[in-house]
Amino acid sequence: MFIFLISIILMTQSCQQQSVPKDSKYLSMVGDIAHDPKLDDPNFTLCDEKKTKQYHNLNEEMQYEGEKYALNNIFTTQYKPTGGVTDSGMIRIRFMVNCKGQTGRFRLISSGYDYKEKQFDKTITDQLMTITKSLKGWKILTDKTGPKDYYQYLIFKISDGQIKEILP
Fold first, then answer.
1. Could you say which DSSP state residue 75 is in?
2. Predicted local confidence at residue 12, as pLDDT
3. What string of DSSP letters covers 49-79?
4. Where exactly are the structural domains of the chain?
């Protein structure tokens, strides 16, 4: 029994996440959004960059006041399809919400419905990014230790230049 317990302790210690050295070129987690001074607001700060919750770890509803219904209403009223633009596919905007409910580090990637990378007309992507950046009402996520930073994403399904669905 003693050997069994020692084995469990040693396995647990060897499986614990090791931190990445500060001078490393690699991020701590796959999918982390590093600060880029060319893209990001210098006033946006995180409470604890090392303990940012990934969106797949939230296990809760949409972290927005009014949830999905409110987001759909905002994009329905503010997004204006442009005449003649018939792009179709998906546009994903990932970003971070800090412990104060503020957003930053926005990143956009787009693809066709075949999942191959695709460039959309800027009249579409610029509008979606502008509206996403203007969203106020992201909830402050807390746990037993206090407020947390977290990742969020929105995926827009676009058909002939119009929003057909917003995920998640």
1. H
2. 42
3. GGGPBPGGG--SS-SBTTHHHHHHHHHHHH-
4. 33-167
Please, what's the largest Cα pairwise distance for the chain? 74
3-state helix, strand, coil in the chain (%, to 5): 25, 25, 45
Tokens 């987690």 belong to 29
- Paired residues of 134 in beta bridges: none
Helix axes 67-78, 122-134, angle to 10 degrees: 130
Cα separation of 118 and 145, whole Å?
42
The first and second tokens of residue 19, run together, are 């931190």
pLDDT the model gives residue 54: 65
- State mean pLDDT over 9-35: 48
Checking if the pLDDT of 51 tops 60, the result is yes
In the structure encoding, which two tokens stand for residue 29, read together?
């987690």
Sign, CA torsion 64/68/70/73 = positive
